[in-house]
Amino acid sequence: MNRPDFLGRMNLLRGVVLLFLVLVIAACRPQEAVVQPTALPTLSPTPRSTPLPVVATAVPPGQESNPLQIVLRPFESLNTARAVLDDLEDAILNQSGITVNFELVNRDAEALAALCASSSGRTAAVWVGGVEYLAAEAMNCGQPVLQVERGTRANASTGSASSVIVRAGSSLAQLSALNDRIFCRLSYDDVSTWLIPVLMLQASGVNITDDLQQIRDYDSIPELVKAVASRQCDAAGIPSDALEQFDDDLGDTVEQVNVIATSLEFPYAVMLLPAEVPLGTRVALNDAFIRLARDQRVSSQLRSLLGQSAIIAAVPSDFDELVEFGESTGLDFAQLGN
User: Fold this and answer.
1) Where is average pLDDT lowest: 53-67, 77-91, 290-304?
2) To pair with 81 at 20 to 30 A between CA atoms, which of 44, 96, 101, 148?
């Protein structure tokens, strides 16, 4: 090979290598970052707190602006009872710091209705008898806290019983035999001569709606007893002590009737409080009634409402036997209460 050709080829090779290095260096060179325009933030209103509406705090029953209602059928006449209400309300306020309003009704059933309506409005404590207690217990409308006691010492009792009488010498010896018979009473809402005897009949399998031939009303206990003795009635309900109590009026008629069944004692009056009454109010009110029944000046006024010799504490277990008897009748006391 001659020297000029050799030199030419070498120059060509150097040129190729140089071009290759230029390309590599250009490819490896760092690229400048592309600057994008900065996005402006979107402005939004500054959130501000919105005040909540003012909710009024419920005033517990027993305060001056929300008096606790005490509903009852008075022991004495409405006029006699009304005359002492202001004094008794003041006495309870002074004893307990609780503001109460007494409301008098004609029937225990009205008091029961007020008790069961306490959850939907006005709060009412009530005094009711044993039959209404059974309805209140079945409807879960309140808890017993007090009950009335009458008589003293050995003669003290918290309730009364009823008896069913028939004519002496009659073949009617038990309540179940009173099917298709004439039953007599004082009135449809009288406790001793009708409401309690109804439960006695039901517990013995006699349905008063379907099984009795007729029901007759009389004006007094002596007339009722004489009607049985003279065969105007096959049977009648009377207070269990009526034959002794009316012995002078009845005379020889007492010997012309027989007692075939006597009930357990039904409470004279039980105080029931709804759940809406706070515990502190409950305790203070209970103590006030017990103390006022012992106060010589106030007890006579309270007696026109409750007929008490004393007022004593009560708990549900005091009435277990009564509730058991009520269940034996097969009656729906919740429905009856409504």
Assistant:
1) 53-67
2) 96
